[in-house]
TrEMBL record:
Protein name, as recorded: Putative metallo-hydrolase YflN
Domain of life the protein comes from: Bacteria
Gene encoding the protein: yflN
PANTHER family referenced in this protein's UniProt entry, alphabetically: METALLO-BETA-LACTAMASE DOMAIN-CONTAINING (PTHR42951), METALLO-BETA-LACTAMASE SUPERFAMILY PROTEIN (PTHR42951:SF15)
Sample GO molecular function, one term: hydrolase activity
Amino acid sequence: MKIAEHLEMLELHMKVMRVERIVYPTLIWDDDNVILIDTGTPDNLEAIKKQMETAGTSFAKLNKIIATQQDIDHIAGIKGILRENPEVTVLAHEKDKPYIQGEIKVKRLNPGFMDRIKDLPEEEQARIVDMFENSSVKVNSALHDGDVLPFCGGITVIHTPGHTPGHICLYHQTSRTLIAGDALNILHGELVGPNADPMREDGVNANDAIDSLKKLEDYDIVNIITYHGGLFSDKPNERIKEVIRDRKLYSYMK
């Protein structure tokens, strides 16, 4: 789906824990750069290729991947992309870098998560754990809060920890589009905050995740692309303030 000139919201279908889900990576490009923000799982590679062609660029031109966080539904597809395009540069926040590189076990692979998947068939449990344990890739460039990437009209890095230690949002300056990762979500058509379930399992205070959203108030936002939910464009700045005020969170359990 075209959001702005040379900015496309992709739509990837995946099945996780016996539940069909749709996630929405973002594709941005200019004459010198083709950037994919988050990658889905290994099964999504062909869909990414086709949607890039439809958008007006090509998989062969892809030269950068930005991971908004360490969760496998955001990074598990990177390895397959690198096998075909080994020169692609991977960028992520410095605090999630060691998890993505496999130096530290990813936050989600914890007793709480294992308890949630224990009723799945053994084959499905093994597939999920395998993705967790075998999705590590080298992060070529560590990002920091406030970095402005000189690509595609300028992309500002906004560190929004809580969902993961190094979770980031990205603000595309030219189109005034916020790529929110999992910091914001859409539930029943309503903009809400981060997913509460994994934060409970990780022992994270959900208030910290909501408080980090206050940084977003500094930006003039026309569109928000949420990884779980897609596009939100109904007075986004006002809705972000309401999310912060109301402390609304997203939950897979709803």
